[in-house]
Amino acid sequence: MRGEVLRGHIDLLLLAVIANGAAHGYAIIEALRQRSFGYFDLPEGTIYPALYRLEQGGLLQSCWTVDAGRRRRLYSLTPAGQDALQERRREWRAFTASVGTVLGGDSDGA
Amino acid sequence: MEPDLPLLEAYLGALHAELAAEPLRERVVSEAEDHLRETIAQRLAAGASRTEAQQQAIERFGSAPTVAAAFLRLRGQPRVFDARRGLPEPALEELRQATRVGLAIKDGATAVLGYWVPEPVTGRPADERFGAIIVRRRDWRPNLGTTAEFEPVHVEVARDKRWQRFILPELHTGMQLQVESWSGQLRLWLGPISGGLAQGTQIHLVFPPGRHLRSRR
Question: Fewest Cβ atoms nearer than 10 Å: which of A12, B91, B114, B169?
């Protein structure tokens, strides 16, 4: 179910994580897990294609760095990525507000 | 690569091989290595043995076929396996995850076993990816039936008890799969067929168009 929930929202989530600062793949995925309190716990290797797709779409940029003798790829938002993040945040908040309105006071799921 | 991380080394080799069609293969493998080394270091710090740390890191990252499939999906390329000389292990792993399988005649000598696997993370509306396994075609009368006579058919196997209980456990690496067209149906045989009789495992799947999967022993 969590994979189903994540599907379609992975771009927004990754952009939001990387907006906090440039990071390498491991740190991005770890932040995604920690900030969701473990809810988004997926095969880590399958997140990388999403990073590549965002980079190809001009929303991310990346470069090689050397950290403690280890070669790492560092990802950061482009200006287009920052714009996309703002736009998608607005869309998401409008969507969740609408869903909340429809669901009404049934907040406990009873 | 340190010789004391043999599981990591084997995994990266497998991933490199799986990504043969990926134009950024070297970068992908390099990033995977960095990621896995980071995870291994974390596990070691938490008290895991070197073997446990490697196993846990690889398990979290996802199998080489799973990761490679996610990249192929990104490129819009289906995975294709040639199983005419036996079922390769990555193809078997794919079949274990399949929710649907299908059969189609390709030509007089070959057929295709197609499968659909749920995609864990794509960011795209499509929720499944397709792969194909090339297998031998074998008919009781050579060249009986052309491609046009046999429409491709597929069946839902995710909830099919016969597939789950009797077919999947029988599949193994190196197994020969053959497709037979007979009486308007397509049949997938597990195990070699010789002289009109199945050798070894006496199971075949019947793919009658528009009907459910049937299996026989």
Answer: B169
* Nearest residue to B40 via CA among B50, B26, B27, B28: B50
pLDDT score at B69? 83
B120–A3 CB contact, under 8 Å: yes
- At B36, is the secondary structure helix, strand, or coil? helix
Residue B70 Cα, gap to closest chain A Cα (Å): 6
**Chain A CA closest to residue B27:** A73
CB contact (8 A) between residue A43 and residue B120: yes
- Touching check for B31 and chain A: CB below 8 Å? yes
Radius of gyration of chain A (CA): 16
From A8, A24, A52, residue closest to B74, measured CB to CB: A52
Q: Name the residue among B34, B63, B73 with its Cβ closest to that of A72.
A: B34
Please tell me whether residue A60 adopts helix, strand or coil conformation: strand
Q: What span, in angstroms and rounded, lies between the C-alpha atoms of B196 and B192? A: 10
pLDDT value of position B169: 85
Average pLDDT, chain B: 78
Q: Are the beta carbons of B154 and B113 closer than 8 angstroms?
A: no
Model confidence, pTM: 0.62
Output the CA angle B192-B91-B160, nearest 5 degrees. Answer: 80
CB pairs under 8 A between A and B: 87
Chain A residue closest in CA terms to B64: A45
Confidence of residue B202 (pLDDT cuts 50, 70, 90): very low
pLDDT of residue B217: 44
Confidence of residue B9 (pLDDT cuts 50, 70, 90): very high
